[in-house]
Amino acid sequence: MKLKISTRLCVFVLAAMVASSCSDSKSDNPVTPAPEDKKVSFAGDIKPILQANGCLNCHGDRGGLSLATVEAIMKGGDHGPAVIPGNAASSNLLTKISATPPFGARMPFNGTPVKDRDVELLTTWVNQGAKDN
Ligand code: HEC
Q1: Which residues contact 113 (CB under 8 A, 6 or more apart)?
Q2: Ligand 1 centre from 33 Cα, in Å?
Q3: 9: Cβ–Cβ under 8 A, 6 or more apart, which residues?
Q4: pLDDT at 110 over 70
Q5: N- to C-terminal Cα distance for the chain?
Q6: 2: Cα separation from own chain's centroid
C-alpha cells in the first residue's frame, strides 16, 4: 500500500515538473539572440565563409550543386534547393554541415567541421530571408 502511494506521488511530481517546464518555455518572451540583430550579407559574410571552408572548391560552377551565387544556392542539387529562405532548420546548407546530416556525409566533405560562429552567421542569413545582399 505504501509503495502504491509513493509511486503515485512520484508520477504526480513528474507530471508537475513536465507541466511547469512546458509552461515556462511558452511564457518566455521570444527574445532573439544577439547575432539575429546583425544584418548578414551574402557578399560580405556568407561567400567568404563558403570560400574559407572549401565549399566552393567542390561546389563551384562545374555541374552539380553550386554554392557560388544565391541564385545557384536556390536552384540547389539532387536534394532540392540548398536553402529554404527563413527556415535554416530545413535548409540542406545547414543540415549538411551539422553533425547529423539527413543524407550523405557531413560537409565540408572530409574536411574540418564549420566553426560555430560561421554556422551561426549562415543560420542568421537564411533566417533573414537568404537575401542576395
Ligand atoms: C571535397 C569536396 C566537397 C567539399 C569541400 C564540400 N562538399 Fe558538399 N558535397 C560533396 C559531395 C561529393 C556531395 C554529394 C554527397 C553527399 O551528399 O554527401 C556533397 C553534397 C552537398 C550538399 C547536398 C546537395 C544535394 O542537394 O544533394 C550540400 C548542401 C553541400 N554539399 C554543402 C556543402 C557545404 C556548405 C560545404 C562547405 C562547408 C561543402 N558542401 C563542402 C563534396 C564536397
Answers
A1: 97, 99, 106
A2: 28
A3: none
A4: yes
A5: 69
A6: 49
Q: Which residues line ligand 1 (CB under 6 A)?
A: 53-55, 57-59, 65, 76-79, 82, 92-93, 96-97, 103-105, 107-111, 114
- Distance in angstroms (rounded) separating the CA atoms of residues 122 and 41: 10
Which residue's entry shows cell 552567421? 121
CA 57 from chain centre, in angstroms, equals 22
Place of cell 565540408: 108
Phi-psi region for residue 60, left (φ > 0), alpha (ψ -120 to 50) or beta?
beta
- Residues 47-73 pLDDT 10s: 999 999 999 999 998 889 999 999 999
Ligand 1 atom nearest to CA at 122:
35
